[in-house]
Amino acid sequence: MNKPIDPSTIGQPEPRKERRRHQRTATGYLPEKDEGGKEIWPRGDEAAWKSGLRGVDTDLGAITKSIVGHVQTTIARRAYNIDEEGMYRAISYSVRDDLIVNWNDTQMLYTKKSPKRAYYLSLEFLMGRTLDNALLNLGLKENYRKAATTLGFEDFEELVESERDAALGNGGLGRLAACYIDSGTTCELPLWGYGLRYHYGMFWQQISTDGSQVEAPDPWLNHANPWEVHRPDVTYLIRFYGHAERYGDKKAIWSGGQEVLAVAYDVPIPGSYTRNTNNLRLWDAKPKRGFDLNSFNAGDYEKAVESSNSAEALTRVLYPNDNHMVGKELRLKQQYFWVAASLADIIRRFKQLDEPWAKFPEYVAVQLNDTHPTIAVPELMRIFVDEEDIPWNEAWEITQKVFCYTNHTVLPEALEKWAVPLFQHLLPRHLQIIFDLNLYDRRSTRGCVHLLTTSNVHVENSYKVLAMANLAVIGSHKVNGVAELHSELVKTTILKDFVDFYPDKFGNVTNGITPRRWLDQCNPGLSALITETLGGEKSEWLKDLKKLQGLLAHAKDPVFQKKWADVKTQNKERLAHFIEQTLGVKLNTSALFDIQVKRIHEYKRQSMNILGVIHRYLTIKALSAEERKKIVPRVVLFGGKAAPGYYMAKLVIRLINNVAKVINADPDVQDILTVLFVPDYSVSLAELLIPASDISEHISTAGTEASGTSNMKFCLNGGLLLGTVDGANIEIAEEVGEENVFFFGHLTPNGTLPTLSELPLEVFSAWISSAVEDLRHNHQYRPVPLQERCPALAVVFDVIAQGRFGDGHIYEPFLNTIRTGDYYLVSDDFDSYVEAQRMVDEAYQDKAAWAEKSITTTARMGKFSSDRAIMNYADEYWSIEPLKLE
């Protein structure tokens, strides 16, 4: 089971990561000394180090010289006391040198050619580890491996794994942004990303002795980050609070309040098999005046540092808990701080062109990734009207041509809304602009009252709120969803009132993933097998994922199937080793690996998965010993974080851990069923889990998941999909073949569904939306007891309530959400889910047929490359073109 944590260790560095930083021993690489005190270098490393210092005329020699130089001058260490953490940093600085040369050349090319640039504004960039990705993109991994070996560090992968994940995101939104930045460079597009330099990230997730999630700080910047370049010369002053005095035609002077400095940190983003290197610019907050000497001299020490603490809190932690007013205010401040600094930087760059403001949209495109950066719309208007003296109507026309907005949800509660009093207190000038835009929007919609009452930027509730999604729509010239079904649902549900007036704004860009990170890097065995089978260079299929279709010719070949299965087994063994080392649990690597990893949320229905596990456990327990031998062994793995204030999601985590504790200790199901919650899910952990999966679960309530990208990652690595009619699941099924996907749910009787080719998309989405609402209506107004709705689930509930997995009373709030109301339709889909799992078991027993399904799934995933998605944005939304660095 998950090893329980000692409460006294909460907030301390993770033990596993600390072990990787141990110093080399005398029998390894610390030099011994002879009787006279002279150092004795082990394994002949002295010559390697000295040759590195001198340098030789070979690639390997140059790399060795660069590494040794950084050991001595950048991190100020000597050869005999360099440990793994120090060597990782030295290698990273050496690699960064190459990146910065390419970065400077790329920026010089952009300056000379003055192309139109796109800027991707995302509050999250979940980059994961950088060293391995950079080496693969530069094609230098083997050279650096050899150089490290000559310097006495033979386990290069251990060096790579000593890097901490960059904690700049918490889920799919940030991982998608990272894929797009990677693909933008690979496709040689002039594309920059803008985000925040969080010091602590989301949180380090630990599991307590009672199975609950415990949040501890994640100080990922405690050790110097070799991948960032501090830019103290790129600094902007950002204002909060104060007051705005109107004058003239819609103009105002905003003054007073608090001023905070935004300081830039750049992260070079390499492309694959290209010298082009783009940039991710992250903003850190610093006080305008860091220390109040007068207060200090007067003995008021708290006031002396108050300004510094207040400013630095802006970028201290990702997404502060907004269950209270202080958290809400800090979150809104984060958003404005990031957006204002980014726009100031973009405008500074445009002014260097010495072009009229009317041409601003010809040089600048800004993508709003979700509603978080929507404040950019009134901020750009403020700059145009108040600072650049552009007439209101002209400023608004320019603004709309600049922005595009990506919607990531159809859940009304997930669309950001800000209380007017809070907004007015923090950003008084922007509230004035939003009210003016509201009046302008009324005129542009010809005074249609019904539109104003339902989709107006200024919405009445128990108190006045600002609906940021609506503001993003009217402030952008393009709006897109992230899967075909989602994009249609957006138009028919949450944003339907805008479609009649802005029909040309709405489109779709189905999400994608980078095959460099999510196949080549995380699954090198499969990458090598694919390259060997397709022939040619690896770069050919990595940059044109459609070429994977060449694997279809080998899908029925028993020899190739055996090689394919062997790679999967190796990946399972790698994951099993990690699990045993970190959690102390041995996994049966011949079992079917069933994995669900994503943010914990009711609509994603990890709840149904663990309830299904309990049902499976009870079924196995009822069998005889002889009958159990026929059961397909299964390892069920969960991973994901629950928001700190999301009580129900945290309760699901607790249930998963306590169910696992019982099942894993039961000798009746040993090697037949193992259940684990893997704590602190991250990009690096995903790189272990995804290649090892046989089945991945994407089981959200139909019509609630926008797209998903983890479904694409699992399928690209040959894991089959178990899912609902939701998000990108449908498009994946269309590509890989419905016979290779296990669909279930009330809307998929007998595991089938109407394909989009048989049903128009708008009809298909309307059918799903109305069917889900009908079910919810029945639960609310014509309730049926759970025992009648779903007897199998009722038995599971009884077992939980009776205390089989700990105190049953603890889980009553969770159980009651399904007993009464069941908004996410768990009871409606449960029987179908159990049947789908039975079909999985049956299919897995035919190893040849399963291998064919797995190969076919990977071969047909070409559509889901983020290269395709980013070029879609470039062509249809941003109007930018590739610009190659020779």
UniProtKB/TrEMBL annotation:
Domain of life per record: Eukaryota
Gene Ontology CC terms: cytoplasm
Keyword Protein biosynthesis: no
The reaction(s) this protein catalyses: [(1->4)-alpha-D-glucosyl](n) + phosphate = [(1->4)-alpha-D-glucosyl](n-1) + alpha-D-glucose 1-phosphate
Sections of the chain in a coiled coil: none
Any Pfam family the entry gives: Phosphorylase
Modified residues (N6-(pyridoxal phosphate)lysine): 713
A GO molecular function held by the record: glycogen phosphorylase activity
Region Disordered, residue ranges: 1-37
GO BP terms, alphabetized: glycogen catabolic process
E.C. designation(s): 2.4.1.1
UniProt similarity note: Belongs to the glycogen phosphorylase family.
Name the record gives this protein: Alpha-1,4 glucan phosphorylase
Protein's organism: Tulasnella calospora MUT 4182
